[in-house]
Amino acid sequence: MLEGVTMCNVAVLEFFHNNTEPGEFLGKAVLEVGSRYVNGSVRPFIERFLKPRLYVGIDLEPGLFVDVVTPAEFMVNVFGVNRFDVVVSTELLEHVRNWRVVVNAMKLVLKPGGLIFIITRSRGFPYHAYPFDFWRYEVGDMARIFRDFEIITLMRDPMEPGVFLKARKPMNWRPADLFNIELYSMILGRRTRDIPSLDDMPILRRVTLTILNSRLASTMPGTLRRLLTRAVS
User: Pfam families per the record (predicted)?
Assistant: First the structure.
């Protein structure tokens, strides 16, 4: 993991504070996708101040705030469709290889009229493998991905490269076709609509990322470490 990478910064907590109403959560069922505690979580704020009836956290690995261990790709198999009033995902989408499957699954488990809150990272944010780091999303990307929802708030993270989204699922929702959407691939170092494998990573990029995620990085001069980080971000 790169030094200084955070998973839930102050701006994320402020976004939830400024863009949530108690009535949106009170007595409701909430699903958090990618819920394992790494460096901060919005769950304590939501449970303490917004009072949902049910809060379920899922993650690929067990840990604090994880109620169900399952890959995000399988959430529909686990819960079914139209099951939750609110879906929350912070710092997850950049880590799932097949982002289309996971986005569609989050849309499916959400009830019509329900709300989705997503925090994800944009180009310029350092590589951070938990255990992998695949994608970067821009504001325009999220607008296209959620063009089948009513977008309430869509903004850049004011502190670090990233995107904040709050959107509502229409009562007569019809899923958008995501096939032609390109994202910036951290594997390839360019935008693509394909889903590359780790074997597709160019050798120089692979070597640089390996160095940055090793103990050697902590012994490097700061200028060199920042230069290498910038080259692969």
Answer: Methyltransf_23
pLDDT tens for 88-142 read 999 999 999 999 999 999 999 999 999 999 999 999 999 888 778 999 999 999 9
Same-domain status, 211 and 171:
no
Residue 2 has pLDDT above 70, yes or no: no
Handedness of CA 105, 108, 110, 113 (dihedral sign): positive
pLDDT for 233 beyond 90: no
C-alpha to C-alpha distances, 215 to 1, 6, 196, 224, nearest whole angstrom: 10, 18, 27, 15
In terms of C-beta density within 10 A (0-12 exposed, 13-18 middle, 19 or more buried), how is residue 58 classed? Answer: buried
Q: Which residues of 15-31 are buried (b: 16+ CB within 10 A; e: fewer)?
A: bbeebbeeebbeebbbb
d(CA 86, CA 204): 42
Q: What is the CA radius of gyration of the chain?
A: 18
HSE-CB of 214 using CA atoms within 13 angstroms: 9
- Within a domain: 135: yes
* Contact indicator for 92, 134 with CB cutoff of 8 Å: no
User: Strand pairing of 150-156 and 162-168?
Assistant: antiparallel
Longest pairwise C-alpha distance within the chain: 56
Kind plus residue range of the DSSP H or E element containing 25? helix 22-25
Residue 215: give the domain boundaries. 190-231
